[in-house]
Amino acid sequence: MEKVRTRFAPSPTGYLHIGGLRTALYGFLFAKKHGGDFILRIEDTDTARYVEGSVDIIYDTLKDSGIIYDEGPDIGGNFGPYIQSERKNIYLEYAKKLIELGGAYYCFCAPERIETLKDKEGNLRYDKHCLKLSKEEIEENLKKGVPYVIRQNVPEKGTGSYHDLVYGDISVDYKDIEDGILIKSDGMPTYNFANVIDDHLMGITHVIRGTEYLSSTPKYNLMYDAFGWERPTYIHLPPIMKDASHKLSKRNGDASYEDFVNKGYVKESIINYIALLGWSPKTTQEKMSLSELIEKFSLEGINKSPAIFDETKMKWLSGEYIKEMSDSEFVEKADRFLKESKVYGKYDLNKIAALLKTRIEIFSEIPDKINFLEEFGEFDIALFTHKKMKTDTDIAKAVLPRAREKFAKLDSFNFDTIHSAVMELVQEMELKNGQVFWTIRVAISGKESTPGGVMEIAELLGKEETLRRIDFSINLLNK
User: Fold this and answer.
1) pLDDT tens-place values along the chain, 479 residues long
2) Is 250 known to be catalytic?
3) What H or E segment, with its residue span, contains residue 208?
C-alpha cells in the first residue's frame, strides 16, 4: 500500500466550524493510523469571503486541539506552496493543458448574456456556446484582450460513477452537472479546479470531506481522467445536525472549538466528542485520548446517517476529564475561571480543586460554585429548615452558639480537628449528624448547596472567618 496522505483544506472565512474540525480530525486520525502524512492547505481563492485573521485561527485551533499537521503553510514541506493564492500560475498552466485535452474551453460570454441563461430560481445552465468557437476566433479574442473564463467541458450524455468508502457506489448523470468555471476572469481558480490540481500535485491518496461533495465528485473525476491521473480514494462524511432538521453551520453562527474552550470545556473532551460525531468505535469506551482515537479509528465505524450534536453529552465527557485531573492540573487548566471567581491568591487553590473536581463539568461553572467564599451577607433563614435533614430555625438557634464555642477553642483549625469538634457536638446535643452538619454549613456559606461540607468549607475559610460568619448567622436568626 502506498503511503497514505490526507489533507485538510479549509477556506479562511472566519472561525473553524465544528464540522470542519471533524473533517480535519478524521483526516489526521486516518493518516496517523496508517503511518501516513496529514497536510494543511489553505484554500483562499474566494477573495470575496476572505476574513482577516482566519488563517491564524486555523493554525491555532489545530495545534491547540492536538491535530498536528506534517506539512503546511507555516511549517513548509516538499509540496508547497500550501496557500492556493500563492499557486496561481500553476492553475492557469494546467487549465490550458486541459483545454488541449478537450476537458475545458475558453468562454468569452459577457455577464449580460450569462444572466439570460438563468432559470426562475436563478440556477445557471451554460449552453456551451463558446465550445463551438473556432480556433481562429479564440485566438483573435485572446489577442484583443477580451475578458474570459475557462469552463469545464462536461459530457452532455452518460453517467459519472465512482466508489466511496462510506457510501458505496455513486452515480450522477452528466446532464445534471453544469460546465462550471475552472479559472475566473481575474485569473484565479475556483475551488472545483484548484482542489483537483493540488490534491494530485501534493500526492493526496485519500480525500476526506463532507457529503455535500458526493454529487460534484464526478466532475472532479472527469479532470483526473482527462489528465490521465489516478483518482484518489474518496471518503465522504455524514453531516452534523444541531437537531433533526437543521445542519450545524458556520453561516448560522453555530459554535466553534474556540467558543467551547471559552465556555470552559476541557479541550481533550471537545476533540473526543467530535470524534464520536459520525463514528462509532468497536468498543463501549467513550472517553478516549488522542492516541487511543488513532489506535481505534477505522473507516468501518463511520456512519452514513447524520450525527446530532448533543452538547449535554459533550459536557458530561468534559466532566469525566475533570474528575481524573490532579489538583494541580485542575488549578492550571482552570486558571482563568478561578481568577474570575475572585478567590485567586486568597485561598488554597488545591483544596478548592479537590472540592470542585467531582462537582463540575465545565470550568465556567467554577465562579457560581465558590462565590460564597467571597460574597457572604444577608440570606434567607428559611435555608436552615430542611425536611429530610430534620432541621429548622429553632435547631439552628441551639446549635450555632455551641458550635462557635467548640471552634473558638481549637488551637489547630483543619479538617480533622473541625470534624472532631462537630462530632462531639452531635453527641452532646443528641442530634443526628445531618442536623448539625446542615445547620453549620448553611451558617458559614449562606447557600443551599455548596461543593464540600462543613469541614472542607470551614478549613478553607479559616478560623477567624468561620467564627465571624457564625456570629453573623446567629444575629440573623435572632432579628
Assistant:
1) 689 999 999 999 888 889 999 999 999 999 999 999 999 999 988 877 878 889 999 999 999 999 999 999 999 999 999 999 999 889 999 999 999 999 999 999 999 999 898 877 878 889 999 999 999 999 999 999 999 999 999 999 999 999 999 999 999 999 999 999 999 999 999 999 999 999 999 999 999 999 999 999 999 999 999 999 999 999 999 999 988 777 776 666 667 899 999 999 999 999 999 999 999 998 889 999 999 999 999 999 999 999 999 999 999 999 999 999 999 999 999 999 998 887 777 888 999 999 999 999 999 999 999 989 988 999 999 999 999 999 999 999 999 999 999 999 999 999 999 999 999 999 999 999 999 999 999 999 999 999 999 999 999 999 999 999 999 999 999 98
2) yes
3) strand 206-210
Quick one: 5-72+199-238 is in which CATH superfamily?
HUPs (3.40.50.620)
Strand pairing category for 233-237 and 206-210:
parallel
Cα angle: 442, vertex 443, 445; to 5 degrees: 60
Confirm if 343 and 350 have CB atoms less than 8 A apart: no
**What order of strands is seen across the sheet that includes strand 181-183?**
104-107, 149-152, 181-183
* Rounded Cα distance, 225 and 220, in Å: 9
| CATH C-level class of 88-183 | alpha beta
Q: Is the peptide bond before 81 cis (omega within 30 degrees of 0)?
A: yes
What's this model's pTM, rounded to 2 decimal places? 0.90
What architecture does CATH give domain 257-324?
Orthogonal Bundle (1.10)
Residue 52 C-alpha cell reads as 482577516
CA proximity to 402, closest of 378, 434, 426: 426
User: Which fold does the domain 376-478 belong to in CATH?
Assistant: Arc Repressor Mutant, subunit A (1.10.10)
Catalytic pick from 250, 296, 342, 406?
250
